[in-house]
Structure formats: structure tokens, C-alpha cells
């Protein structure tokens, strides 16, 4: 029942990636591999206090250390730079604390940067940090959500009466009536722990400021070249034509490299002051405090339904545990959690709020999934709890509440879903579970006294993010369009220049496939250039929100259509025939039905650039098209995840035994890359569901700053994974492409929570907190056992 | 600043000498002093395995060693796997099986995989998973790496 398409061209073909040989051979060039002549290396002194007043900063001893070129403090930053820009302003009247790359008077989380140093190398720079004297006056700490919300809470910002950053409520229908008239009402408080993307390559930057020309050359390990150039321009009050951003090979992004940070501002300022290039690359310990944290929120929710399982209303509050300042993403991910709280279901009455709360923790920002795993935990837990309460089959309850395919475009609470066949996707997943014999495995295990459960999670995924007007409508202070240039050169070879940024996801290969298919040329003839603001076309936002294939690819498809017209015109002139009689296939332009009458793309390219006399009259030399992709609306992918888990009742440990996802990302460009994206997302969310948590002590100190404390999945933690593909075309994207970058990530925690409940069904346990660590689950098991005895 | 010492190592068959401070890590020495940038630094505390090298015949974490400890050692980095422009069978297998995404863990993963196959010429899935459990990959979820190592082992058996 899985739709196995047979690829007739490059789109849909399972081809190996063009990126790989140099990565395999050790020839990649990541940020830290770049060494410019005279380059200095930076280091950043970070606050050891979660909340403190800065009384005095003395950097004189550091400045005197041989090998030190610059030491910069917050007071100096204020003279040279503007406040850090925040592009996510989606909450009306959200409080916007003004923050610069370095603070002058106060620190609000452990790890907040206070002073930066540039020296001959990192070793000397770190020596210099030890010579900096800072006098702090520790302040009372709001280390947790409850502490920050307490009546007498220490305030992080004196200008406001409390620690709330803002509140936004989404409403639809008449929610009070729905709850009054409901046959059943469920109430749950769910907690999603603090986690982060943690790319294996830490974040870094090199800045080279030529003070004679004012040209600033930046190399950033980032997911957004153009957006970060613009934000850098704002932060440095510098026109962007003086800034060039290049993105070398990026060792993983996962959202952590999407947001705008402070280190690139500091490197730029120190380069300006020293006349030398300055590199700052964080070490792993720094990455745990200086990169965006994510996910942490408490969700108090209620569901109203009829006795036969029809959902009639949802209401609740997402309490977003923000950090001590705003990242560029501000309260964005929790906001999206609240906005998509109805998930794939038809919920006529909604009243869901998001409240952002400042705490003395690291700032919240982007991480793959971006609020959607949290929302999915809510709606997929509630739907299974509803089924449990009513004694109905959980997947029948899901099915009962899906919009039918003919109800698309389906208007959900905030967004309109473009296309979908949700019930079919559920069926595909269920048939996979049946085929793989999970129920038999579960029964056999239970017969042996083992606690094995099956859980499901159906998710919707916001992809092709995003259409500029949609972004602006929801408060993003930036455009979101994509753009690609397709150029055929004098030898007939093709170069694609895209604004999208590669970070390991295989986008060069995927875009080459789209281009090869669209133009009718062999994929070997296509090169994809990305990650350079001087050669690649402008793109809004950054490569996040599962967008690169859809927006980058959609632009290529349109550009190729325009190019093909030119190719046919030139070919017709060379072959003395009519353009409409020509087909372009495998790099040749041939008369339809008479393949012997043909010219190669090389001849076309030669005519367009060198033997221009061969062009038809009126044809302008060169062969190049540029296309902006700013679609009318988003594309909504979806999927149904199933997991088979085993719980150890003695220890509370959970092991995922098997995994399966049926998903629909529209047109599949390369099944191998799609599966790779899903596998990686699943790994991160199995880590997120069971292992990963950024833990803070009562004193506000972070306790997880190494891979020994913050556990990411290793090969032995991972089950086999299977992906079944469906293809329902995107409505607003040429080629029907939706995104897949976050597909694996979103539903796994909910599915695992559901499976753990199922494994412990005799105890009537309800998992309410992610990650499901052994101590958390053991406490639930013990409590349930005590209640039963 | 301490006085510098001379360290001589043989890397991928070539003997190289350079001066460095005694505190310089072997990883920084290989990367920055000698230019073997395929040695990656993912954590600098010996957990992630991105900096894995072959040190006198066995894999080791170059981030947790000092360059001075390597004086006289024989070292292989990822650059030593390919034969000129011909990729090593394990590299080919990683390519064919999509055993990498961002490529940052890949050098360490490849060197560990080759060592694993020396130990288990026809490794089981469990042996592979156990064998690479000291190397973190944040992109792939490991499934295609496991497939690649099984495939690479077969290719290595055929070519040996």
C-alpha cells in the first residue's frame, strides 16, 4: 500500500549525494578549518552567576598579556554597535528588553558573555580570560518557571512589574459553550524539558574588517547567509553592501545555527579594532550555554469531547520558560506550539494562550521541530487519553476527527493546511505495524512478563517556511521568500545559485536533481552553489522550517521553464525548425520524433556566449534566469509515527524496540535523502523523549555542560527505523514539493509517551513529562503500584 | 609561556616535525600545525569521537592527548584512507548507503569502522552498533551508518 513511485527522471531517484566524496576524504572545509593570514583567535568570558549586578570590570592585566591584541567590554560595544535585532515579534506588545552583544550592568544567566578577547591563538586568549577581574553582586534568582511567576519573584527587568514577556491568545468558536456541553472533559498538565540541537560542529565565526574600504568579510557557520548579513548590518549600523557572508561546510545546524547571535558581532568589532581577522569558535562547554536552548514549556490543557469521541473544544495555556534575554527567535517556538495546538484535528472551539516568562536560564531559540513536538505531545496525548477514557480504539478516535481530503484547503486555528490524506496515512502506518508483526511481538513479550507497548503519534508539519506575507502577518519582522538563479554556461553546463544554505541535509544534491529534471540535462552537468551573499541570490529568513527543497526547488523549476523557452528558440534557429517541435532530453535539444536532428546543450551554450552570431535575431546573449519563490501560503506535511517500546518496571528505563513512520512530504525528490532526514530527526527525538535534558539546579547553575551529562543517542540507543512514503502534492509550490526536515522529529516523543502508557496499561500510568527519564517514570510506576495495593 | 618542544610524528606515512608548546593538544597539532583538518573537534572531552585517529595501530582520541605524547608515533588520519583519488572501500560504502550527512563525525566514524572490521571481518549488527557507540553522530540516526559498515566490511573482504 506504500506508494512506490518509479522515477522516470532525476526527481524521485535514489541517487547518492554529490556532496559526499570530499566529506569522506577529509577534504571538507568547516569554519575552524579556515585560517586567514594574521588571524587572531577569540575567547569569551562568561558569567558564572545566574543573576548578578556587574559592579566593576578590570581588563588591564589581560590587555598586558603578551599575545593579546584586544579585550572588549560591554561599555565599548555600546559605543560601536546597536542592540541585537529580534525578528520574531509575533506576540502583540511583547516586552523587548534592549540587549547588546555584551551587557554593561547586569547578567541574567550562567554563560552570558561579559568580556571578549582576541589573541594570537585560543590558548593565549584563554590565558587572558583568567586575568580579567570582574566584581559581581549576586542577585536573587528566578531559576524556574514557578519562581519567576511568584508574587514576590526577583524581577529580571526592573522596568516591568513582573517577569512576563508577553501573552497571545488564539480563539475560535465558543469554547466555554463547548466545555459546558461536553460529554467528557480531560485535563492535563504536560511538561516538556529543556533541550537543544547540539550540532556536532560547534558554532563559530570569522570576521575580517578592512578599515580602509570598510568591507566586512564574514565566514559564519550559519543556516542563513543573507538574513544574517542584514541583521549584522543592523547590529553594526553598517550598510549591507559592505558586508559579505560566506558559509563554509556546516557540521549540522538543527536550528541552533539559524538565529542571530552575539559572537559574530564581537568578532567583527575586534577585527575592526585590531585590523586583523578574528575567529571565535565556541568549545563544547560554551555551546551548552551560548547556543539557543529550546522546548522547555509547561502546557496546561483541557479537551472537550462527545461520548463517541468527537473533539469539540481545546483550551489551555502554554507557559514558555524563556531565558534571561531574547534570542532572535524570541518566544517564537512556544508561540507556534499554541498556534498549532489543534494539530491535524477538526476542533471547532479553541482558546489557547501562550505566555512567555523570563527566567535566569539561557535564552530560548530555534531547534528542529520549533514548538511542534511540544504541541504534538499535547494533542496526541489527549487523543489517546480520550480514547482510553471512552473505551474506544485510539486510532478510530483519530480518524473520527480528521478533516477528509475534500475538506482541504483546511482552515485550522491559525494556519490553513494545503493538502492531505490523513486517514490514508494512518492506514499506511497501521498496515506497516501489522506487517511488521508488532502486536504479536507485544503479545509474546507480555506472555514472558515483559512490559511492551505500542504508541502512535500523528503530526502536522509546517513546511516551506515561508511566504513573506504569511510571516509578516504572524509578526515576523523579515521576509521569507526563496530565490534561485539557474545559469547555463558557454559549455552547456548548468550552475544553480541558491539562497538556501546547506548544513549537511543534502540540499545540493536535491536541488541538482530538481534542476536536471526541469531542464532535461544529466545531473552530472549541474553544479549547485550556495552560502555566499556575493554570488547567491537573496533569500528571506534562513534555511529552517523545512523549506530548502520547496522554496529553493520551486524557484529552480520556474527558472528552468523560462530557460527552456530560450533554449528552444536558440535550438530552433540552429536546427531550422520551430521551437514547439523541440524536446530537451538528456542534454540534447532534438526535433520531436526525429532524434537525429539535434544539437547539444554545449552548442546552445556556445551560441549564447561565444558564437553569438548563431543566435536568432533579437536573442540576447547569455542564458540565465532568476526566480523568486514567495508562495501564497505554506505547505503542510504530515505523518503517522508508531513505536514499539519496552519498559523496565524495576528501573524505569525505556527502550525503543522498533520505529515506523508513514509520512507525506509531497513530491519525494530523493528517497534516500528523505529517509536520512527522517532517521536523524527520529534520533534527536528519541534522545529528546528519553535522554536529553538541560538541567538547572535550584541555584540557577546549569548542570549539563558535557556529553557525559547531556546524553545524546548513540548507535546502541537507536531502534531500526522504517519510513513509508506518500505523495500528496503541495498546492502552492511548483513541483508539489513539501518539506521533510522536521518530519522525524515532531511526533516521536508523543508516540513514546503513548507507548509507555500502553506498556503499563495495567497500572493506568499517564506519562506527563518529557524526557521520560528512569527516575521520572519509576516514580510514576511506584505511585501507581502503591495505589493498587 | 613555556619553551617550545619539537615533536616528530609519522602521519599517513609521511614523517613531519614541528615545534609546539608542551600544552598543545595532539588534535590542535595535527589540525593547525600540520594541516590535517580532517581531524575534527566535536567536544574536546573525549566523548564524541570526531577527533579519532589511528595511533600506533589503534584508534585514539586526539583531543585528549598532548602533541608531546605523540613524539615518534605512527598516526593515520582520515586523509590516509583513500588511495590517491580512489576512495577506500569503506568510504565508498558510506557514500552508497548515505552513511553521512554533515560529514563532521565521518572521519572518526570511518577510522573506527575500519578498525572494527579488522576485529570482526563479518560483523553482526550488534557488533557494529556496540563498536561505534563511542562515536556520536547527530545527523543520521546511525541506521545508514550501520548499513554502510556492513557493506564496507563485505567490500573489504572481497578486496583483501
UniProtKB/TrEMBL annotation, chain B:
InterPro entries: 2Fe-2S-bd, 2Fe-2S-bd_dom_sf, 2Fe-2S_ferredoxin-like_sf, 2Fe-2S_ferredoxin-type, 2Fe2S_fd_BS, Beta-grasp_dom_sf, Diverse_Oxidoreductases. SUPFAM superfamilies: 2Fe-2S ferredoxin-like, CO dehydrogenase ISP C-domain like. Residues 5-81 form the 2Fe-2S ferredoxin-type domain. GO terms for molecular function: 2 iron, 2 sulfur cluster binding; metal ion binding; oxidoreductase activity. It comes from the Bacteria. Pathway: Alkaloid degradation; nicotine degradation. Keywords: 2Fe-2S, Iron, Iron-sulfur, Metal-binding, Oxidoreductase. PANTHER family: OXIDOREDUCTASE WITH IRON-SULFUR SUBUNIT. This is (2Fe-2S)-binding protein. It comes from Pseudonocardia bannensis.
Amino acid at each position: 500500500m506504500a506508494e512506490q513511485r518509479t522515477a522516470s527522471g532525476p526527481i524521485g531517484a535514489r541517487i547518492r549525494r554529490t556532496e559526499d566524496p570530499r566529506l569522506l576524504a577529509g577534504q571538507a572545509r568547516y569554519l575552524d578549518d579556515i585560517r586567514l593570514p594574521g588571524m587572531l583567535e577569540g575567547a569569551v568570558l562568561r558569567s558564572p552567576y545566574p543573576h548578578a549586578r556587574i559592579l566593576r570590570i578590570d581588563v588591564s592585566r589581560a590587555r598586558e598579556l603578551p599575545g593579546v591584541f584586544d579585550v572588549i567590554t560591554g561599555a565599548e560595544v555600546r559605543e560601536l554597535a546597536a542592540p541585537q535585532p529580534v525578528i520574531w515579534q509575533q506576540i502583540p506588545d511583547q516586552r523587548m528588553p534592549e540587549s547588546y552583544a555584551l551587557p554593561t550592568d547586569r547578567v541574567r544567566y550562567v554563560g552570558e558573555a561579559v568580556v571578549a578577547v582576541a589573541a594570537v591563538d585560543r590558548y593565549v586568549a584563554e590565558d587572558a580570560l583568567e586575568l580579567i577581574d570582574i566584581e559581581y553582586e549576586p542577585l536573587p534568582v528566578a531559576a524556574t518557571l514557578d519562581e519567576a511567576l511568584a508574587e514576590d519573584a526577583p524581577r529580571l527587568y526592573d522596568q516591568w512589574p513582573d517577569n512576563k514577556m508577553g501573552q497571545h491568545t488564539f480563539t475560535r468558536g465558543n469554547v466555554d459553550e463547548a466545555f459546558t456541553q461536553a460529554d467528557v472533559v480531560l485535563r492535563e498538565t504536560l511538561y516538556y524539558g529543556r533541550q537543544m540541537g547540539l550540532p556536532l560542529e560547534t558554532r563559530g565565526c570569522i570576521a575580517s574588517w578592512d578599515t580602509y574600504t570598510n568591507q566586512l568579510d564574514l565566514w559564519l557557520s550559519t543556516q542563513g547567509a543573507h538574513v544574517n548579513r542584514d541583521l549584522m548590518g543592523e547590529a553594526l549600523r553598517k550598510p549591507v553592501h559592505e558586508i559579505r557572508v560566506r558559509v563554509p561546510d556546516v557540521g549540522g545546524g538543527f536550528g541552533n545555527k539559524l538565529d542571530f547571535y552575539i559572537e559574530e558581532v564581537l568578532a567583527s568589532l575586534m577585527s575592526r579594532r585590531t585590523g586583523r581577522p578574528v575567529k571565535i569558535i565556541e568549545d563544547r562547554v560554551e555551546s551548552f550555554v551560548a547556543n539557543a536552548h529550546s522546548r522547555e514549556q509547561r502546557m496546561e490543557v483541557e479537551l472537550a469531547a462527545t461520548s463517541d469521541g468527537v473533539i469539540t473544544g481545546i483550551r489551555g495555556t502554554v507557559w514558555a520558560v524563556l531565558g534571561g534575554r531574547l534570542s532572535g527567535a524570541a518566544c517564537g517556538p512556544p508561540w507556534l506550539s499554541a498556534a498549532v495546538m489543534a494539530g491535524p484535528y477538526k476542533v471547532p472551539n479553541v482558546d489557547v494562550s501562550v505566555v512567555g516568562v523570563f527566567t535566569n536560564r539561557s535564552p530560548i531559540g530555534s531547534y528542529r521541530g520549533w514548538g511542534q513536538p511540544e504541541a504534538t505531545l499535547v494533542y496526541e496525548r489527549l487523543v489517546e487519553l480520550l480514547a482510553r477514557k471512552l473505551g474506544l480504539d485510539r486510532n478510530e478516535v483519530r480518524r473520527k476527527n480528521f478533516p477528509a481530503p475534500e475538506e482541504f484547503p483546511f482552515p485550522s486555528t491559525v494556519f490553513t493546511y494545503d493538502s492531505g490524506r490523513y486517514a490514508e496515512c494512518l492506514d499506511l502506518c497501521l498496515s506497516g505495524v501489522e506487517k511488521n508483526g508488532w502486536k504479536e511481538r507485544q503479545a509474546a513479550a507480555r506472555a514472558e512478563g515483559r512490559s511492551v507497548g505500542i504508541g502512535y503519534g500523528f503530526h502536522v508539519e509546517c513546511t516551506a517556511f515561508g511566504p513573506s506575507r504569511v510571516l509578516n502577518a504572524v509578526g515576523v519582522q523579515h521576509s521569507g521568500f526563496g530565490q534561485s538563479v539557474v545559469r547555463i554556461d558557454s559549455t552547456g553546463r548548468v550552475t544553480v545559485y541558491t539562497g538556501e544554505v546547506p548544513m549537511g541535509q543534502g540540499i545540493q544534491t536535491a536541488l541538482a536533481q530538481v534542476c536536471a529534471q526541469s531542464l532535461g540535462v544529466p545531473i552530472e552537468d549541474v553544479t549547485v552553489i550556495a552560502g555566499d551573499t556575493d554570488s547567491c541570490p537573496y533569500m528571506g529568513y534562513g534555511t529552517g522550517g523545512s523549506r530548502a527543497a520547496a522554496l529553493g526547488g520551486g524557484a529552480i523549476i520556474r527558472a528552468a521553464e523560462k530557460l527552456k523557452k530560450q533554449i528552444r528558440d536558440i535550438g530552433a534557429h540552429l536546427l531550422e525548425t520551430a521551437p514547439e517541435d523541440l524536446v530537451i532530453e538528456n542534454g540534447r535539444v532534438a526535433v520531436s520524433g526525429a532524434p537525429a536532428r539535434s544539437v547539444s546543450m554545449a552548442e546552445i551554450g556556445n551560441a549564447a556566449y561565444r558564437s553569438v552570431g548563431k543566435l536568432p535575431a533579437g536573442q540576447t546573449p547569455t542564458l540565465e534566469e532568476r526566480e523568486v519563490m514567495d508562495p501564497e501560503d505554506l505547505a503542510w506535511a504530515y505523518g503517522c509515527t508508531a513505536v514499539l517500546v519496552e519498559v523496565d518496571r524495576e528501573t524505569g528505563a525505556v527502550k525503543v524496540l522498533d520505529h515506523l513512520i508513514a509520512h507525506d512530504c509531497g513530491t519525494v525528490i530523493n528517497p534516500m535523502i528523505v529517509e536520512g532526514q527522517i532517521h536523524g530527526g527520529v534520533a534527536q527525538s528519541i534522545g529528546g523523549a528519553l535522554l536529553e535534558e538541560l538541567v538547572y539546579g535550584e541555584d540557577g547553575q546549569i548542570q549539563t555542560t558535557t556529553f557525559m551529562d547531556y546524553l545524546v543517542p548513540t548507535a546502541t540507543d537507536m531502534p531500526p527505523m522504517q519510513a513509508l512514503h506518500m505523495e500528496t502534492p503541495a498546492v502552492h509550490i511548483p513541483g508539489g514539493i513539501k518539506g521533510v526536515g522536521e518530519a522525524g522529529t515532531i511526533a516521536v516523543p508523543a508516540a513514546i509517551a503513548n507507548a509507555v502508557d500502553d506498556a503499563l496499561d495495567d497500572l493506568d500510568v499517564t506519562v506527563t513529562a518529557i524526557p521520560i527519564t528512569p527516575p521520572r517514570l519509576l516514580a510514576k510506576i511506584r505511585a501507581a503500584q502503591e495505589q493498587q495495593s | 609561556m613555556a619553551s617550545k618542544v619539537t615533536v616528530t610524528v609519522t602521519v599517513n606515512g609521511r614523517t613531519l616535525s614541528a615545534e609546539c608548546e608542551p600544552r598543545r593538544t595532539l588534535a590542535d597539532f595535527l589540525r593547525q600545525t600540520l594541516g590535517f583538518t580532517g581531524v575534527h573537534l566535536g567536544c574536546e572531552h573525549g566523548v564524541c569521537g570526531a577527533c579519532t585517529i589511528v595511533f600506533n595501530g589503534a584508534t585514539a582520541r586526539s583531543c585528549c592527548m598532548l602533541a608531546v605524547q605523540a613524539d615518534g608515533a605512527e598516526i593515520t588520519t582520515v586523509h590516509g584512507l583513500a588511495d590517491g583519488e580512489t576512495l577506500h572501500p569503506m568510504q565508498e560504502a558510506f557514500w552508497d548507503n548515505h552513511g553521512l550527512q554533515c560529514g563532521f563525525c565521518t572521519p572518526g566514524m570511518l577510522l573506527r569502522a575500519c578498525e572494527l572490521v579488522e576485529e570482526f571481518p563479518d560483523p553482526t549488527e550488534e557488533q557494529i552498533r556496540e563498536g561505534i557507540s563511542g562515536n556520536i553522530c547527530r545527523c543520521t540516526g546511525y541506521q545508514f551508518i550501520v548499513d554502510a559498515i556492513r557493506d564496507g566490511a563485505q567490500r573489504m573482504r572481497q578486496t583483501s
